[in-house]
């Protein structure tokens, strides 16, 4: 069955994707018969055109990176969609929401359908997950004593943990961290948007650990 386009799927003036499959249908069960018949307008890279969602997730699962991303959500942070979308783009192992379970999916642009998402009621539960899976907790905030991410070595197996707009990282998150990193700023604002900070730090991990010859 064709997946319904969500409110944030790419629709409207600039239609993306491809129309109905031309020629004999491929004999491969990764392909979705409905997408082959009607076309594929989803927000996915071209190599996954016409693939079933489960087949796409399985393919990414085989090559996900060992960094996880976590964001605190005690006050319904509106940046989480952006964080999920960027984590998807960089093939993060999973995204962890810490605090409230509900989050605004608008900014995710439907990428959450291809991403593993976990919920933890508090930082303690996230820390237990990290310990169980051998992940260092790298907290991200511009707090005193933080190491500049521009020069810090990021552990390969880790959770990058972000705070929310307003309060920033909770004291529990700072306490649980094996390492705290900050992003250098030079202007007047106290901090940057948490979604932007997440993109910068995820990319710092990519620069240190990813095999760029495997990028799309
Ligand atoms: C808007 S900031 C909040 C608080 C900030 N500590 C303050 O002094 O106002 C929200 C989150 O974005 C991330 N962030 C924003 N600017 C950052 C920076 N320069 N370095 C590291 N993280 C940053 C952190 O994860 C932070 O918890």
Shape, principal axes of CA atoms? elongated
Strand order of the largest sheet: 3-2-1-6-4-7-5
Structural class: alpha/beta
The CATH architecture of the largest domain can be named as 3-Layer(aba) Sandwich
N- and C-termini, Cα separation: 28 Å
Radius of gyration (CA) equals: 19 Å
Number of domains: 2
Largest sheet descriptor = 7 strands, parallel
Beta content: 5-15%
CATH topology of the largest domain: Alpha/beta knot
Question: Could you name the CATH class of the largest domain?
Answer: Alpha Beta
Count, helices: 6
Classify the helix fraction into a percent range: 25-40%
Annotated CATH homologous superfamily of the largest domain: SPOUT methyltransferase, trefoil knot domain
Give the number of DSSP strands.
7
Low-confidence stretches: 1-5
Bound ligands = S-adenosylmethionine
Mean pLDDT: 93
Instruction: Work out the oligomeric state of the chains in this entry.
Output: single chain
H/E order of the elements?
HHEHEEHEEEHEH
Outline of the structure:
Keywords: Methyltransferase, Transferase. By secondary structure, the chain is α/β, with parallel strands linked by helices.
């Amino acid at each position: 069955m064709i997946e319904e386009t969500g409110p944030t799927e790419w629709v409207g003036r600039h239609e993306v994707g491809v129309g109905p499959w031309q020629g004999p249908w491929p004999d491969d069960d990764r392909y979705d018969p409905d997408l082959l018949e009607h076309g594929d307008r989803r927000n996915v890279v071209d190599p996954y055109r016409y693939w079933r969602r489960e087949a796409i997730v399985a393919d990414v699962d085989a090559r996900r990176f060992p960094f996880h991303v976590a964001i605190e959500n005690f006050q319904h942070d509106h940046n989480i969609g952006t964080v999920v979308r960027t984590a998807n783009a960089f093939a993060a192992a999973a995204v962890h929401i810490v605090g409230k379970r509900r989050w605004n999916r608008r900014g995710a642009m439907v990428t959450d359908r291809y991403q593993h998402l976990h919920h933890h009621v508090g930082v303690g539960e996230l820390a237990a997950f990290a310990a169980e899976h051998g992940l260092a907790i790298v907290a991200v905030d511009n707090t005193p004593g933080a190491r500049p991410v521009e020069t810090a070595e990021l552990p390969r197996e880790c959770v990058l943990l972000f705070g929310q707009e307003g309060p920033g990282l909770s004291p529990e998150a700072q306490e649980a961290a094996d390492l705290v990193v900050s992003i250098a700023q030079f202007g007047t604002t106290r901090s940057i948007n948490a979604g932007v900070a997440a993109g910068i730090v995820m990319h710092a991990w990519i620069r240190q650990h990813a095999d760029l010859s495997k990028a799309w």
